[in-house]
Amino acid sequence: MPTVSVRDQGANKYADVIIAVGIVAIVLMMVIPIPPGLLDFMLALNISLGILILLLTLNISDALELSVFPSLLLVATLFRLALNISSTRLILLEAYAGNIIEAFGNFVVRGNYVVGFIVFLILVIIQFIVITKGAERVAEVAARFTLDAMPGKQMSIDADLNSGLINEAEARQRRRAIEQEADFYGAMDGASKFVKGDAIAGIIITVINIIGGFIVGVWQMGMEFTDALRTYTLLTVGDGLVSQIPALIIAVSTGIIVTRAASDGSMGRDLSVQLFSQYKALFIGAGVLLVIGVLPGFPKLPFLFLAGGAAYLGYKLRQAQSQTAAAAEEHQREAELEQARQPENVLSLLTVDPIELEIGYSLIPMVDPSQGGDVFDRVTLIRRQLAVELGIVIPAIRVRDNMQLKPTQYTIKIKGVIVADGELQVDYFLAMDTGGVMEHIQGIATTEPAFGLPAIWVEASRREEAELAGYTVVDAPSVLATHLTEVIKAHAHSLLGRQEVKTLIDNVKEEYPAVIDELIPDLLNLGGVQKVLQNLLREGIPIRNLVTILEALADFGSLTKNPEVLTEYVRQSLSGQITALYLDEDQVLKVITMDPKIEEQIIQSVQESDQGSYLTLDPTSAAKIMEGIARVYEAAARKAANPVILCSAQSRRHLKRLVERINKRIPVLSFNEISPDAEVQSIGAVTLQQ
Predict the structure, then answer these.
(1) Could you tell me the pLDDT band of residue 688, with boundaries at 50, 70 and 90?
(2) What is the pTM (predicted TM-score) of this model?
(3) In b/e form, how buried is each residue of 204-228, taking b as 16+ CB within 10 angstroms?
(4) 396 near 430, Cβ under 8 Å?
(5) In sequence order, what DSSP letters do the residues of 142-198 get, joined into one string?
């Protein structure tokens, strides 16, 4: 290995020296005369270089594989101009510039300088107007579009890096490729001007050679007028042809490389695959050629021959595609059978989706984008909304049809268990009675699935009538989205597993490593943090402010490892956030207070065990307390939209367990969870005398 490395370094060093010497020699050729024999070699080298460049551009799959092309184009153009100057010097001084130029002047155009001059002009026009102009425009547009697309490509790379699809090394490599692509097309935009200037210089040099040669031949060498015109014109045309043919080849190479899109194969392979991939086009082309061939006045043999060739090629192509499709289908069938035989395939059946939405067949148009359904878009918005509100990343929601359901029914599953269901009427609107209905209208009676409000399904034509009557009207997809959102909120704690907690903690660790290093694993393990976060989500407390939560756990983790107690400490640290959740429109917290005797009775009934603490209230006392809470809360709910039960910190979590038996939506807060600057107003009290 070391020997190879040294040899490679030596080769690179000699290559740099050779290129430097070659460029200096090209410049010297413009000043120092060279003999005709050496000029022949140089002209042959120029033609070979043009052919080599053309073959390279035809066999690359990406323009960056020949990223040196702009510099190579400049050197080739400079070399060709140096040859023009050297040949001009020999033509004017000796009326002879080597065998290659003479052969192009006599053999290629058969000694007819008029025909040669016309051919030369045609070549220059083709190169200057068609190829060079087009390549210049394509290079300019490609450079502009490449630069405009750079920010979007950079953002795409950053997104893939953040999502874990690529690593840092791959990201750097892709960024470098984007920079190289922008540099390449920017350089090609300028390098294409070399080809354009070379074409113009070829025309000017040819005119100068003819006029100068005529003057030198007649006035200095004493040649006859016609002999001077014929000799110098043939030499000049030969010189022009021998220089413009490589120039034309390199111009074609320039056009190919700037119009070449990235692919997996060479240009020849791409052309053969893409041009001859549609046998129907070949059959139609054969028919058109056949019709032209039988028309009166047209030569029949060429068109009939081409028609037969196209038809035969189309037939063979269709036959090959049929065989390929049959072989692919057979291969796929065998692969599926082989996969089904593998015992490992059973493992995929054991996976349970975190969230599933199953729908009846009548609801399929709501989720099918081709039929105008937007449920998938709404699901994406739901995940974003819940990420902001709750602070967790909701897993992907799988939507599938279930023929066992009623046509209009849907079910929502959490980890394979049905937790909610409902029915929807497609093309109908749900009109809900939220308390402001002034006039009842006819419709299909139902219950709003998310909040249990009385509602009716009305036809789309009666939507405006329902709104004027005081109903709150929403479409069926919105009903489904709202129900799905509320179900996920209610079960967010069960969706937060250890892997999800680790993802959240890793995200925090990037900016707050000290908090994580102090807490995990010395004070709490991952499971302990998970239980606290689940307790918060179970009562609707967002965990988006994860830094404050983890700092609170670090503060009190040395005092206790009990997740229930730690949750209470965390709730007190989130007092401002919790208070803001339950403020009404006037920024007032409406509360229901508890009789201290009730709280004392609850605290005294708490028993501690290895599995945690639990209440040992006798059924009669528990029923009486719950009955009083239900009665007072119902009365308070008529006065305020979002009343909360206020109690001491010692009894809060135990009182919450009693309240959950009445209504899980009733919030229970402790005095320590109320922000000091919050305005609190009591609208009810639960006492033992009730």
Answers:
(1) confident
(2) 0.52
(3) ebbeebbebbbebbbeeeebeeeeb
(4) no
(5) HHHHHHHHHHHHHHHHHHHHHHTSS-HHHHHHHHHHHHHHHHHHHHHHHHHHHHHHH
Task: Give me the sign of the Cα torsion angle 95, 97, 98, 102.
Answer: negative
What tens digit of pLDDT does each residue of 152-200 get? 677 777 766 666 677 778 878 877 777 777 677 666 666 666 666 666 7
Instruction: Characterize 560-587 residue by residue with b for buried, 16 or more Cβ atoms within 10 angstroms of its Cβ, and e for exposed.
Output: eeebebbbbbbbbbbbebbbeebeeeee
Q: Which two tokens stand for residue 440?
A: 């009842």
d(CA 320, CA 328): 12
Report the chain's mean pLDDT, rounded to a whole number. Answer: 79
Q: What's the average model confidence in pLDDT over 538-556?
A: 90
> At how many degrees (to 10) do helices 225-259 and 36-58 cross?
30
pLDDT digits (tens, 9 = 90+) for 34-49: 888 888 888 888 888 8
Mark 31-42 as b/e (b = at least 16 C-beta within 10 Å): eeebebeebbeb
The residue ranges of DSSP E strands in 6-109, in sequence order, are none
Question: Could you tell me the two tokens for 482?
Answer: 């709202």
Spatial contact of 378 and 418, defined as CB atoms under 8 Å apart: no
* Pairing state between β 644-647 and 668-670: parallel
Structure tokens at 88: 């001009």
What average pLDDT does the segment 376-388 reach? 86
Rg (CA), the chain: 42
